[in-house]
Write the structure tokens for this entry.
Amino acid sequence: MCTLMELRPNKDLLDGKFIGFKLSLDPVPIYRHNLHNEVDHVLPSDDQYSFLHVKVFGLHNHLFGDPWARDDVYFIDKQWRVHKSVRNGNTELLDGVQEVWEMPSNHVRKCGHYNTSLSFSSPELAVLSDGAGTLHVVHTGIRVETTAWKVLFSDEVCGKEKPFTIVDSRVNAISNKQEVHVLLLWVDEVRSLLDEKDGHIKFVTKLEWVTLLEGENRDWLMQCVRQLSGVGGLDYAALEPSCHSLYIASGKPFQFDSDSESAVEKKEPEGSRVRDKHIQYAWLQTTEDITVWLQVPEQTSKSDVNVTVDTNSVKIKCKEFVLLEGSTWHCLESQLTTWALNKGKLEITLVKREQGLMWQEFVKGETQGEEVMDPALVEEIHLRLAHLCSDKEVTDSSGNCVPAFNTQQLEECDDFPLETSLLVRLDAHTHDVSHRVSLGGHQWLFNVRVKADVVPAVCLRHDVDGCLWQFDSPQEGGLWPCTHIGTFPAFGYVQASKQQKKFCTCSPDMSYVAVCEASRHIYIYRQPVAIATELRNRHTGQHVAHVAKQQLVNLDSSSEVLGIHASCHILYVLTVDTLYALRINYGPGPES
């Protein structure tokens, strides 16, 4: 049984009297270190052209923070050497980088690979991926000390030369032995339900949950492999601290495909209607219309087909059999519908009433159809997102910078369906959704880990604010704790105007939030702080007790920003050849 949860912000953490951010001209100290070797930065190949690929490559963060040592960051260069930031012992500021380990070169970098990734599973263990198909489990020792890293496990866990990236990892102790749980991601392609000669390809997001167990002789073996898939993108995925479940936030549902420990029972999604399993259809959309294909017996004549289209519904019959019926995702121009029948294939073209509005489904709740991508639409999206995964600035015919695709803007042309966006808890043993939270109306802004021993928190837009939510393991009563732990006043509104936005993050103490553009510009928004002076609003005359500051930082390089990490004191920014450290706050010593 699935428990439905609701996100209710804590009113004590909301500021109804917030009046806005005051632009501050106070300088932000910037320290930089030029890298001897460039960061390993992989661009998508010609075959990796879908929106899912662009998101995985373009939004990949090449700067990896250590949850157990907040002021330390790591990156991997082109020689697959892992480097750690070094702080000055007196000032605690950036003093260079130090090589800590070299990843074994089991593969030669080639097209189709992913970017390297690193995740710290515990204070003494880390997992790394070379982006070419090999997963490494490494004993790092106490990382705040200078210790040599030692490989415990290396293998191609997803298959021979099957590339992937690491999403999350966690260590779980069982009977004096350690289990390492690693969540991996890649984008897979599957053929359409249409004839293969039509050449339609569909891309899906794959998640692989790998469990490694420490053996008697300190060796590590693969204990369990679980695989999930979803037809849409992924906003959030994390392993529960107990490693009994998986948390996923996405626009379309994910489900278990396989489990090496127990068989996965395929279930019909809730709300779907059972139909003849031989009746299948595919649909393709552009910004103006939708084309639907259905298979019918070859001897079918046009008189046997009945297509009825209203403003928001469709019904398609072949003789007395209903092939497709239901409410459409948005409205149609019913009078402009056309259809044709050719050798057992029925093709229907429907015109959208809202031009430019993209549909998430053709018929609401229908599971027998699949969407195929229009190559022209894919190319258009790819161009709009090109600045996220290209080493060249994208400009138009006049030489002006092309605005980035930004799903957070509130224009109708940028609208996307949020009403079915869900955050779910998937049980590893039953393979069912045990808890569900509807994110409809709350835009996802960013994820950040505020404590080392908990899952990353999620920042969602509530009205104009950005609210940070922390999730924990379910309690005895079956409730899934979803706690509102902090608010960034008006951040949901201000970040929507950042058309070149690439990364968002905040400090663990939530004292500031940062928006990093694809290159050069970084916006810093500080929490309101009390002031002692008699400052008054020039229009209303009211006394102003708190002031929130906004700062703009311009880097001295136009290189693409590849990574960002925020600690309570320092904001690290990584480009292909430089590591920057921005001193945001001053405090007593390093964080732990």
About this structure: The CA atoms of residues 265 and 431 lie 8 Å apart. The two ends are 41 Å apart (CA to CA). The helical segments are 51-58, 375-384, 491-494. Residues 375-384 form the longest helix (10 residues).
